[in-house]
Amino acid sequence: MNLNITKQSIRKKYLEKRDMLHKNFSEELKKNLINNFLNHTEISSGRIVAGYYPIGSEIDCLEILKLSHEKGATTAIPYIKEDKIIEFRKWRNGDPLIEGMFNIPAPKEDKIVIPDIIIVPLVAFDDTGIRIGFGSGIYDRSLPFFSDSKKIGLAFFDQLNKKWLPKEEFDYPLDAVITEKKVFIFDKEDEN
After folding, report:
1. Average pLDDT, stretch 90-101?
2. Which one, 2, 49, 63, 145, has the greatest CB density within 10 A?
3. Does residue 192 belong to any structural domain of this protein?
4. How far is Cα of residue 183 from the mean position of the Cα atoms in its chain?
5. CA 180 to CA 28: how far, in whole Å?
6. Pick from 97, 37, 33, 20: nearest CA to 71
């Protein structure tokens, strides 16, 4: 079985599903997701929380970044370098943006930070922490450089693929995925 073809068909199915879920995502469900995030993570002064600038039907994490900043945390979003590796640059709502790689908005300021928490977008995930993204591999290549950072996916509950997703050698698992209905924890330290 060709893993690339399998991943492409899963990606197509879940992108369509995510588009539908995004259209029907009420304010109440959004509040649930934000509360689940805030209850699961330690956001305080001195912490660094990195999110992403949402595109398409990705879950909007900008409110989470705003609330993190209000709690005293430094916030950041990705800048994709020429080698297609992410560096996280300090950014908060209202700061200027530039057009980055793949036309994704990125911070104009180039103050690089190492996040304590990295919020990761995804297309689908399974109950082992494997995710499927857009297919460019940017997060899978970049996340190993942030070994001390907690990697948390944001997803709609129905982006959970009940069967295990195909895993390749370079696929980088998440520590947790937070949805509007449930928090999925995958790392051993938090299972107590």
Report:
1. 94
2. 49
3. no
4. 14
5. 9
6. 37
| CA gap 176, 167 in Å, rounded | 17
Quick one: 64 exposed, middle or buried, by C-beta within 10 A (0-12, 13-18, 19+)? buried
Alpha carbon 106 to its chain centroid, in Å, reads 15
Give the least confident one: 4-18, 19-33, 51-65.
Answer: 4-18
Instruction: Identify the band that residue 2 occupies on the pLDDT scale cut at 50, 70 and 90.
Output: low
User: What letter represents residue 152's amino acid?
Assistant: I
Q: What is the pLDDT of residue 190?
A: 43
- What are the C-alpha distances in Å from 25 to residues 41, 45, 59, 133, 177? 22, 31, 9, 20, 17
Residue 191 lies in a domain: no
- Chain-wide mean pLDDT for the chain? 92
Residue range(s) defining the domain that contains residue 76 = 3-186
Residue 131 has pLDDT above 70, yes or no: yes
Predicted TM-score (pTM) of the model is 0.92
Can you give the pLDDT at residue 191? 41
Say which CATH number the domain at 20 has: 3.40.50.10420
